[in-house]
Amino acid sequence: MLTQKLNQAFDVLKQLQADGTIGGFALIGGLAVSVWSPPRATMDIDLLVLAQSENLDFLVKSLCNAGMNAELRRGGFDDPVPLLIRADALDIIVATKKYEAETVEQSILTNLAGRDIPVASPEYLIILKLKAGGPRDLLDVQEILAANLVDKALLNDLAVRFRVDHLI
């Protein structure tokens, strides 16, 4: 079921990117962690998308037209995820911070379930996880680091730039 939902969302997002409605997207979260380290169970799919606020309603409508139950949720001023689109088993986070936008821009096309899907690089995924800071996030960081796929110089540079170097 998750693969079907990922394929549905991927088709919509790829078309919206081709149309210029969104600037890009990348797989993040548990499924992305499983690309760079041993697989782990996850109950949802997390995506990060570059989109202007004036295009969010169209993005939601496009997901609904593809057969998904999608809704836009706006958080408060201090909410760590101020713009979230929930679409069935997907959480689509709208990039609002520089490190989130860079995560999408620096994503790596990776074959997943027979499709080339943009996935957050291990270094940027670690930054996202450190910024989130939950217990599962910190375990994910350890798993990614243990896989020895990380460019440590790049990670250190990113950690300093985005002020999470004290967490590594």
Largest sheet entry: 5 strands, mixed
The pLDDT mean sits at 94
Look at the helices and sheets and give the structural class.
Answer: alpha+beta
Count up the helices.
7
- Secondary-structure element series: HEHEHEEEHEEHHH
- CATH class, named Alpha Beta
Rg, nearest Å: 15 Å
Termini gap: 35 Å
Which stretches are poorly predicted, pLDDT < 50 over at least 5 residues? none
Strands ordered across the widest β-sheet: 1-2-5-4-3
Description:
- This protein has a single domain (2-121), classed as Beta Polymerase, domain 2 (2-Layer Sandwich), CATH 3.30.460.40.
- It has helices spanning 2-19, 29-36, 56-65, 98-105, 122-132, 135-146, 152-161, and strands at 22-28, 45-51, 70-74, 83-87, 90-94, 108-112, 115-119.
- It has 7 helices and 7 strands.
- The chain starts with a helix and ends in a 7-residue tail after the last helix.
- It is α+β, with helices and mostly antiparallel strands.
- It has a 5-stranded mixed sheet with strand order 1-2-5-4-3, sandwiched between helices.
